[in-house]
Automatic annotation (TrEMBL):
Protein name: Protein-tyrosine-phosphatase
UniProt-listed GO biological process terms: response to arsenic-containing substance
Coiled coil residues, start to end: none
Organism superkingdom: Bacteria
Upper taxonomic lineage: Bacteria, Bacillati, Actinomycetota, Actinomycetes, Pseudonocardiales
Organism the protein comes from: Saccharothrix ecbatanensis
Length: 219
């Protein structure tokens, strides 16, 4: 497979190599007629690299790589005009992609449903979602345990109609002609659930306001 030799430094196990080959097959089936095998494998392995350097759960790396590669390929399809559904696309960015941006993503997806698209990312992705953020969102009936901290990439930025930044400052990417919103919110890192609730509630208020601006009905 293209790129396998380049990733020997990660000491891929036989199971990981098999999992990545299987992931590549699934991605090729999903993007058949849109992207060739070389592009798909390049995105898959570069996504793997994004997590391999600091992951503490190597057995899950192929799955994370596949999920992130799928998101990136969907974004690239939008950028290149292969997929035009007219849905507003929003990207939520914070530092670690472990608290604020994940809660915003959770509210946006819950309220917008299939009427809009949302992604999230971090300038310095953490290792796991903030447990207090998970608990605070669960109190609202929103499960964000299936998400994971991830970086932003160029195609994801380019595909977004609106980029919402939350505390990443100069590390947040700036592309000319892109609409940016900067939300000043307390960082929930290291806080207990009681301290995260006000941040959660403010995020919900802002997400609802953003959906109204985008003419997306909130559930």
């Amino acid at each position: 497979m293209t790129g396998t030799s380049e990733h020997r430094r990660h000491d891929l196990s036989v199971d990981q190599q098999l999992a990545l080959r299987t992931a590549a097959v699934r991605l090729r089936e999903s993007f058949d007629g849109v992207f060739g095998a070389e592009t798909i494998e390049r995105f898959l392995y570069s996504s793997y690299d994004q997590f391999a350097a600091h992951s503490t759960i190597p057995n899950f790396l192929p799955l994370l790589a596949e999920r992130f590669a799928r998101q990136r390929l969907h974004a690239l399809a939008r950028v290149e005009g292969h997929h035009q559904d007219g849905k507003p696309t929003v990207l939520f960015l914070c530092v670690h992609n472990a608290g604020r941006s994940q809660m915003a993503l959770g509210f946006f997806q819950h309220l917008a449903g299939d009427a809009a698209v949302a992604w999230s990312g971090g300038s310095e992705p953490g290792f796991e979602i903030n447990p207090s953020a998970i608990e605070a969102m669960a109190e609202r009936g929103i499960d964000i345990t299936g998400e994971f901290p991830k970086p932003w990439t160029e195609e994801i930025i380019r595909a977004a109609d609106v980029v919402v930044t939350m505390g990443c400052g100069d590390a947040c990417p700036v592309y000319p002609g892109k609409r940016y919103l900067d939300w000043t919110l307390d960082d929930p890192a290291g806080k207990d659930v009681a301290d995260v609730r006000p941040v959660r509630d403010e995020i919900e208020r802002r997400v609802r306001a953003l959906l109204a601006e985008l003419d997306v009905p909130a559930a």
